[in-house]
Amino acid sequence: MVAQAAMASETPPASARPFSSAGTAGDTGAALVAKLGTARTAGSWIGGDGRPVVAVTDARAAQTVRQAGAEAKVVSHSMNELKSATTTLRSAPRVAGTAWSLDYRTNRVVVQADRTVSAADWSRMTQVAARIGGFVQMERTKGTFTTRLNGAQPILSTGGRCSAGFNVTNGGSDFILTAGHCGPAGSIWFADNQGNQQLGKTVSSNFPGNDFSLVQYNSGKAGDGADVVAVGGGKGVRITGAADPAVGQRVFRSGSTSGLHDGQVTGLNATVNYPEGTVTGLIETNVCAEPGDSGGPLFSEGVALGVTSGGNGDCTTGGTTFFQPITKAMAALNVRLIVSAQNAGAAQGTSPSPAPSGAATQGAVAPSAASPGSTAPVTGAAQGETLLAQLTDTRNVGPGLLVIAGSLIALVATRYIRAEQDRKAYQRYYSATWG
Fold first, then answer.
1. pLDDT tens, 188-230?
2. What is the spatial distance between Cα 272 and Cα 196, in angstroms, rounded to a whole number?
3. 38 contacts: CB under 8 Å, gap ≥ 6
4. Does the annotation mark 211 as catalytic?
5. Whose CA is closest to 227, among 355, 336, 358?
6. What number of other Cβ atoms are within 10 A of residue 193's Cβ?
7. 294 tagged catalytic
8. Which of 163, 205, 258, 294 is catalytic?
9. pTM value?
10. I want to staple 163 with a disulfide (CB 3.0 to 4.6 A). Which of 149, 192, 256, 287 is the partner?
């Protein structure tokens, strides 16, 4: 297929201009929603062709969207109506084991209930939904909605195991941003079962309601290379900024139990009624996660998006996983991402960096190019030595590396990548490899 070329002096129409990345498409959709308002729109998402799609409620709004180069989908219910429905659901008696989110693509509010919800509670919630309207869809789901915390290694406190998320700073001290349900303020974190290698202390925690916390490094500093998220093979993706995701965006999640997995954002503004309490404003995805993955990073195109909160299922059968948006957490905690020197001047927590080129800063990082604070510096290990042994060997690492290692220790041994061609495409695009 040969595309018609535009003359050099011509400016192609908006509808013909390509979107260079999911981040660009998501930004365009979000900007159109902000311009038109929540009474005339009902969210945006990234279509199968990579173009932004905006749900609108009238023909004039649809024309504005098309003129901007995006696809318009006329729907019956505005964002105001969808959010009003979630407010009604939230005001009803709380039922642990339920969750709901806004499905922009179907213009519905989807309510899910896990296997722990009784028939009586499900019946009462169904009646509430019926009073709201037919755009509230009720679904039963397999498994149980739980926070992804358990009592194994490698980053441990008295409450169990979690995964580190992203390195952040307040300008004076450095911290690891992770999930709030991992432990209350005062929790002490170690890198080993014996409690010999103390990593840091939780100095701020918010759960339920939100799900984020700060673990302060014992040394106060994360060290150089703290902007790298390892993806295996001694290399990693450099994190260049933070942003809010778009529905339909392809995302990656890493954690200390299940390693690296990918999927799509399926909903935003999700509410989950965990047994421990209710958390709102979450990102909903179809990326799998398992106990111990809590707090691990969610990212796309080198941009930080969130930290793992909870969900159902596992990485054998699949499931739903929810994430605390990182932009909201950083704003509440008054911290910013630690990024590389070449990205330090950019506004963090507000918008993603452009898609990478051949010399992208978020590409692969050679082991010798990093230092404590990332997994990349592990070099010169004896053949056959395990990654865990390398990461916990004090000859090789500093305190910062041990914290990040807790999040990413399983990545080299990633068990599942959905498709080989996807793996290779991601490898080429970001110049990053894994096992």
1. 987 666 666 778 899 999 999 999 999 998 888 887 678 877 6
2. 36
3. 78, 79, 80, 83
4. yes
5. 336
6. 12
7. yes
8. 294
9. 0.74
10. 256
